TrEMBL record:
Domain (Guanylate cyclase) ranges: 873-1003
Entry superkingdom: Eukaryota
GO terms of biological process kind: intracellular signal transduction; receptor guanylyl cyclase signaling pathway
Bilayer-spanning residue ranges: 466-487
Domain Protein kinase: 530-805
Protein name: Guanylate cyclase
EC number: 4.6.1.2
Family matches, as InterPro entries: A/G_cyclase (IPR001054), A/G_cyclase_CS (IPR018297), ANF_lig-bd_rcpt (IPR001828), Cyclic_nucleotide_synthase (IPR050401), HNOB_dom_associated (IPR011645), Kinase-like_dom_sf (IPR011009), Nucleotide_cyclase (IPR029787), Peripla_BP_I (IPR028082)
GO cellular component assignments: plasma membrane
Amino acid sequence: MIGIAKNESKKNYVTLGFLGSYGHSQVGLGALPLAIDAVNKDPNLLPGLELRYVAADIGTKTPSNGSISFAACAIEKMTEMRDNGSIAFIGPDDTCSSEALVAAAWNLPMISYKCADTKVSDKRIFSTFARTLPPSSKVSKSVVSLLKAFNWHRFTMVVCQSHAWVEEVRDAIESLAESYGMIIADMKLYSDYIPRNIKIMDSIVFETYRSTRVYVFIGEHIALVDFVKCLQMRHLLDKGEYVIISVDDEIYDPDRKFNVVARPYIDPYLKYKSGDVEYIMGFKSVLKLTPSHPKNPDYQIICENIKRYSAKTFSVPYHNTIFDSISVPIHAMYLYDAVMIYAKALTEVINMGQDPRNGREVLKKIWNRTYHSVQGYDVFIDGNGDAEGNYSVIALMEDNTLNNTIQLSMQPVGFFQYNSSSSIPHLPNFKYYNENRPIMWAGGNPPRAEPICGFRGEKCINKTDWRIVITVIVVAFFTLIGFILAFKHYRYEQKLACLLWKIDGKDITLIPLGVNESDTEKALFNTKNEKINSSIAPDAAAELAPKRAFTTIALYKGNIVAVKPIYKKNIDLTRNIRKELKQIREVSHENIIQFIGACVDHNNVCIITPYCAKGSLEDVLANKDLHLDNMFVSSLVSDLLKGLIYLHDSDIISHGRLKSSNCLIDSRWVLLLSDFGLHEFKAGQEERKKDKEEKNLLWTAPELLRNPNCFPRGTQKGDVYSFGILLYEIIGKHGPWGNIPLTPSEIITKVKSYQNGKPFRPQTQNIDAEKYVLKCMESCWDEDPEQRPDIRYVRVKLKEMQAGLKPNIFDNMLAIMEKYASNLEALVSERTDQLTEEKKKTDALLHRMLPKSVAESLKRGEPVEAESFDCVTIYFSDIVGFTELSALSTPLQVVDLLNDLYTCCDSIISHYDVYKVETIGDAYMVVSGLPIRNGDRHAGEIASMALHMLRKINCFEIKHRRGEPIKLRIGIHSGHCVAGVVGLKMPRYCLFGDTVNTASRMESSGEAFKIHISEATKFLLERLGGYLFEERGLTTIKVISFVIRIFKKNVLK
């Protein structure tokens, strides 16, 4: 019988071995048969099988028998059970490491319900072990979770060092707390405690209360009572600033809920006295962590059944009076759970078709799983086979069921719940049993982990110090503000005093060039500028100056600049004028003319700005040869608006002199505003005829014309009016008032008069513009300044003009050029491809006429020097009887014949490393070994080619003389040769030397259909091998020659 077998009734059964210590608590042994009966009655567990058990009393470990003999007895019983067919073990009690090691060696599962041994958690050794009794260290997770729930990140531990389970819990809490970043302020240890040693507790309190507010107490209950008493005697618990978390290994019993405060085993009849009440109230600051009491509503029924099965199965004497007073130990529930989780795991193994005797497979179905305990709550077994356990928090709460004076008792207030979505839980979450009945804190709220000001007051300052700090901060703040303001004022004054804008008149060199200003004005300016160089060298002027200038220009630091004269003899640099000059120098915008500087020398006062090559907007509009399309108009209007918006947002506030002559156009066709600001600098100028011209007032708003005091500083609404006139001028291209038949004086008078309630404005009937443009234009020159839109709103109303265009003219022109460039690139690419193809054709033709290396040198323009070759092989051939054949043929027939013949020969030589030198009449000359040297192969290449020629000629047919063969005669010679290009026109690559003459003689002295070679060629061919020769004998050229008769086919290939 090995685990699963059949009895006499032919029914399958599974045998379970139970290892128990009957002397501990026989009442709880009934949980084993009770659980087995439950398994056998459950159709979902072990279907078709019956679970049985065999039990053995392994005795009780005592100091006399020791753990070794105790384990030996258990292993002996295990062996008997295994031999009799048991495939799993439940138990044993107390220590179980030796038994678990044996079970792992046998690969049989062992599930303990009472073993607290720490070593068996190592699954690398004890691979078939699990237990339903939670190890003592598991309470550490609940302790740390409670600390985290109330943000108690700093605590002190008070630990009894006389119990093994206490040390295990202490080490687990210490390790887990540190892993979560908590601080253990202190660790206090004490030995076995008796009430008369209360001074030990008082000493611990005295040494720690100044550096902690949270205590974790692990020890006997009697020591806890005195520890709380010592805290209360020092009045540390009165305000609820301290809390004690006590860890207890006994399950909370609701029937003894007050005894957790008193000391019943010392004074079981303790009565409330006047002095006892305050000590009991001290437990408001105590939270006890205990294993949770079973919450199964049928728990009492289960306990009665366990008692009944104990009497029935294990022969425990049954006496009603005795059994009623005996409680079923909690370990009986762990025993019940052990049987149930084994049955469920075994069922899963069998359903998966695995071996039920394989203990490791069975344990895999138990580890990292949650099971529902008979106690009424879910329990998780981790990867080490240890049950996590369930713990409750009990606290002193109101209890109306008591008849005592204070009506308080220790009651469960919370529990710890693991995250059900995680297969491997970490820390559980603290939960209240009843959210409406939280912990009754002594101070009304949970204590803090440390005081607000720190334990030494380092985080707070007293009221007196606060006043000092605030005073110091306020004084420091205002001092800093004052220093910053003083420093900024100093920097500002420094900038005013440094005169960065000032230009020395000697650095300005006038360029004499015809300008658009009057001769009188130019003469006036020249007479006043005595210190400014009046001219430069004519050559330099011709080189630097533009062909046409629109204002007085000069050379300053190598750049052409515009010079605007100020008609004042001298300038008194007051603070306001320096501020104006500094302000105008700091203006920077892409549509504002840059202020370079000013010259304030006596009789040489002027303003220097960059020169704009296109002149002013007035000049551009006056140029009839320049066509301004919509793109130009939109870009100019956009630049004008951007410049005005910048001025209106700056410290300058308004332009005041806005007109077309003050709108400059640079070389990139960007509009720049000029002649704004510097009002005091320009004030007091000598009167000029030009200033008196009322033409300059055509752009000025009517309210400014009526009130000369506002002019020329102007207003923003006045700038909007001027913009409206400018917009009319740009679109109409006929001046600011069009072709109206009035003089500027008459126009100014009508604008100022405002007769008949209708303002006098330019006529828009004949203006070719969109309606929204005309409407905006008319709103800009409204008579009431307040009704005119601000410049930003004008920009919004004219935004449609910029639709699809770049920010300025130059960018739009670049966009057009880019499109043209893209088309041009495609065209260039196409032409380049065509050129490449033609070049390839030219190169191919050139390579037919000259060797490739020679042709490349000639293409690079390099001279081709003659080159000497030590040994080459030269081929000559001609047609025997060609003269007679030519006499019998027409010239065209001769040409056709030679063309066909040489075409045939050319197709043959392409298969060999040879170079065709030339053809003269019927003569055909080929060489190998030059211009690219090929060792001694040149003789073989020529010989093989000659044989190929003869074979091909035998098949050649003359078109106009059918049946008449071509009699080819061939001569070959090898030797030294010089090659080079001769001539500049129609250059030819020619060979020179005796070798050429000898090869020619070999051909002329040969016979038709034979190859006549020299001794030198024969020598080379013999070295190569594969050729046969026939000696011809001496000839008149005094050279011993041979005739090739046989050529090996395999070599020819």
